[in-house]
């Protein structure tokens, strides 16, 4: 064998070793939410309207429960999002991003504040699936279309979206007005989810058993209940979880700050009081 051939073989062997060593890193990247996005930097230059949130560390994200299905998400870079933005339950601030779903008027607005930069509807009128892949400052937003029921019990295809928000390497999924369990393909698209905002009314959306099935399939470290109308409805959901792998924490503040380091080791349901009303 010539010296040149030997050098080439050694170079190929070295390249193979490097590729093998990088395989775990690529596998870890694939577990980030959601799998429909190959890769995306978590920290982007701040947009012209974003100011850093002084109370957050660089690798933290804040979530506050406003009421019903509405949350206010704020990133360390100052990007704000209101979920299921509507004309009844709103935060005090005008968010930079508003997401909506179409099930009822408490999940969308016909007159969103003109100061909102991005209004993202979780449906299309022609019932084709809507798709989002949006970077706003240090926040990434995507969605998974799902179906909903109409008033007669029929199916409106792609009438709802599960919105996914990624900031500070935390993946938050807002299930919206979910009416059915998730398929294997749905779970594959969503990938690793860290925090699930789950409707737990058990009637207008998915029934309690179905919702618990979804939550167990997602395997997120944190579940935050929403879309319940009184304490008895919430307690019915929590009672069904009794004896399961979930711990339950009730917080006094409607706001919680997450980072990768502070995610619970055991799956935990965190009950936040609404800052407005249900």
TrEMBL record:
Instruction: Tell me if Signal is a UniProt keyword of this record.
Output: yes
Q: Which domain of life is it from?
A: Bacteria
Q: Which residues form a coiled coil?
A: none
The signal peptide stretch is: 1-27
InterPro entries recorded? RibonucZ/Hydroxyglut_hydro (IPR036866)
Identify the Gene3D superfamilies for this entry: Ribonuclease Z/Hydroxyacylglutathione hydrolase-like (3.60.15.10)
Q: Which Pfam families match?
A: Lactamase_B_3
Keywords tagged on the record: Signal
Entry protein name: Metallo-beta-lactamase domain-containing protein
């Amino acid at each position: 064998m010539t010296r040149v051939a030997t050098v080439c073989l050694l170079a190929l062997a070295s390249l193979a070793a490097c590729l093998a060593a990088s395989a775990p890193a690529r596998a870890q990247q694939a577990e980030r939410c959601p799998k429909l996005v190959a890769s995306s930097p978590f920290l982007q230059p701040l947009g012209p309207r974003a100011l850093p949130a002084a109370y957050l560390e660089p690798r933290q994200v804040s979530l506050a429960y406003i009421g019903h299905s509405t949350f206010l998400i704020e990133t360390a870079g100052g990007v704000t999002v209101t979920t299921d933005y509507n004309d009844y339950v709103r935060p005090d601030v005008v968010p930079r991003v508003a997401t909506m779903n179409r099930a009822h008027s408490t999940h969308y607005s016909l007159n969103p504040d003109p100061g909102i930069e991005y209004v993202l509807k979780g449906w299309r009128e022609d019932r084709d699936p809507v798709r989002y892949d949006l970077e706003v400052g240090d926040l990434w937003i995507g969605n998974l279309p799902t179906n909903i029921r109409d008033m007669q019990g029929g199916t409106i295809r792609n009438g709802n979206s599960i919105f996914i928000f990624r900031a500070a390497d935390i993946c938050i999924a807002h299930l919206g007005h979910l009416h059915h369990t998730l398929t294997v393909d749905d779970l594959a698209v969503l990938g690793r989810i860290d925090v699930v905002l789950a409707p737990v009314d058990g009637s207008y959306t998915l029934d309690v058993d179905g919702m618990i099935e979804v939550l167990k399939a997602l395997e997120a470290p944190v579940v935050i209940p929403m879309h319940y109308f009184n304490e008895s409805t919430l307690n019915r959901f929590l009672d069904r979880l009794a004896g399961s792998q979930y711990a339950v924490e009730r917080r006094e503040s409607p706001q919680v700050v997450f980072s990768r380091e502070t995610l619970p080791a055991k799956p935990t349901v965190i009950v936040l009081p609404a800052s407005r009303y249900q």
